[in-house]
Amino acid sequence: MRLRLIGDVVFTTPLVRALRREYPSARLAYLVEADAAPVVRHNPHLDEVIVAPRTRGLRRIADDLKLARQLRQRRFDIAIDLHGGPRSGWLTLASGARERIGYTIPGRSWMYTRTVPRARELRPRHSVVNQWDLLEALPGWRGGAPERERDAVEMPLDAAADARMAARLARAGIRDGDDLIVVHVSAGNRFRRWPETSFVTLVTDLARRHPNRRVAVSSGPSDREAASRIAATAREDLGEMGSRVVDLGEFDLQELRALIGRSRLFIGGDTGPLHIAAATDTAIVGIYGPTLSAQSAPWRSNHAPSEAVEYSDLPCRPCDQRSCAPGDFRCLTRLAPGTVLDAAERAMAAGPRHQ
Questions:
Q1: Which of 11, 82, 88, 305 could be cross-linked to 283 through a Cys-Cys bond (beta carbons 3.0 to 4.6 Å apart)?
Q2: CA end-to-end span of the chain, whole Å?
Q3: Per-residue DSSP letter, 53
Q4: What torsion, rounded to 10 degrees, do the Cα atoms 307, 184, 85, 294 define?
C-alpha cells in the first residue's frame, strides 16, 4: 500500500514490476487513495487496485474500519507498507496478513512482523531505492537492486484518454507537425512553486524561438487561475505570436499522461506530473527547489533525456518544507528563466523530435 501523493505512487511502480517478476503466480493487490489510483489502475502487473476513501473525522474512522474488515476477509499472506504513516501502519496491521513489512518507526514498529531502517535525515538517495529496501525484507527475496533500465517507473497509456486528448489538441489548432511543449505550473505546496513571472518569461521565450512550437500550460485543479494568468500574460507579450500558447483547461491524470506522451518536452517542478512524465519517452526538465534531484529525479532509462535545474550550493537545501529559513524561498526565486530555457533546448536536442 501507498497512500497520499501521486508522485510517491509513481515511484512505487518499479517495485510492483519486481514483485511480479519474482513471484509470477502471486495475486498482487495495491491499496491506494483515489487521487493517485489512475497511476496504477491499468498496471499490467497488478491483479487488483483497492481504493481507500480519503475522508475525515468520524467518517474516516467508519470507512477505515470497513476497509479493515474487507482486507482481513481477503486473507492476505503479505502486506507491504510503502508509506509508513500512522494510517497505513494501522491498515497494514488490521489486514491480518501473516507477514507485515514496514519501516522502523518509533511507536509503530510493533505493527509489523519485519521492519527496515529508514533514515530520518534528508539525504541524496533516490526514493525508489529507499522503498526498494522493503522488498529486501521479503522472505527469500532474490530480486537484487533496482536498475533504471529494467525497473523504470510506468503508467500505461489509457486509449480512451489518449483519444480524448487528441481531439482536444485538434480543437486547439495543434497539428501533427507542431512541437508541443507542456509547462506544468502547479506544485503541491508553496515551497516547490516557481514564481509566476518566471513561468511567463519561460513560456514566452519558448514560444518565440520557433514557429512550429506550441506551448501548453497545465496545472492541477487548485492552480487553474494561476495557469490561466500565465497563459494569458504570455499570449499578450507575444502579440501576433500569441496563438503559440494554449491553455487546454482541466483534465484528469490519464489525459495528462496522454498529453505528455504526445509532446516533445515536459517542464515542471518536483511534483506528481513530473513523475508521470517519467513514464513516457518525452524529454523532461525538472525544476527543484527544496528537494534534491538525486532523491526525486525521473526514474527511467538513461536513454530518455532528463535535465535537472537546481540551485545546488545553498546550505539550507534540502529542507523539511515547513518553514523557509532565509524567508525568501531563494532555492526557487534565484533560478533564472534563462537557465531553465537552456536546459529545455538541450533536452529537446537530445530527444526525439516528435512523439
A1: 305
A2: 33
A3: P
A4: 10
Please report the pLDDT score of residue 3 as a whole number.
Answer: 93
Q: Per the structure block, which three cell numbers stand in for 345?
A: 533546448
Contact 103, 127 (CB under 8 A): no
d(CA 50, CA 1): 9
Close Cβ partners of 26 (under 8 Å, ≥ 6 residues apart): 19, 20
Tell me the C-alpha to C-alpha distance, in Å, between residue 153 and each of 50, 187, 321, 347: 20, 20, 25, 19
Domain with CATH 3.40.50.2000 in the chain: 6-135, 159-350
- CA dihedral angle for residue 250, residue 252, residue 254, residue 258, rounded to 10 degrees: 0
* 10-residue stretch averages of pLDDT, the chain, 355 residues long: 93 96 96 95 96 89 94 95 94 96 93 88 81 92 91 96 95 90 88 92 96 93 87 95 91 94 95 94 95 91 92 88 89 94 94 57
Let me know: does 181 contact 212? Beta carbons within 8 Å: no
- In the numeric block, which cell numbers belong to residue 260? 505528455
Which alpha helices (H) appear in the chain, and where do they start and end? 6-10, 13-22, 37-40, 57-74, 86-94, 127-135, 159-171, 196-208, 224-238, 253-261, 272-277, 293-296, 330-333, 337-350
User: What's residue 171's pLDDT?
Assistant: 92
Report the pLDDT value the prediction gives residue 139, as an integer from 0 to 100.
86
Cα gap 245→202, rounded to integer Å: 11
Amino acid letter, residue 166: A
Fold of 6-135: Rossmann fold (3.40.50)
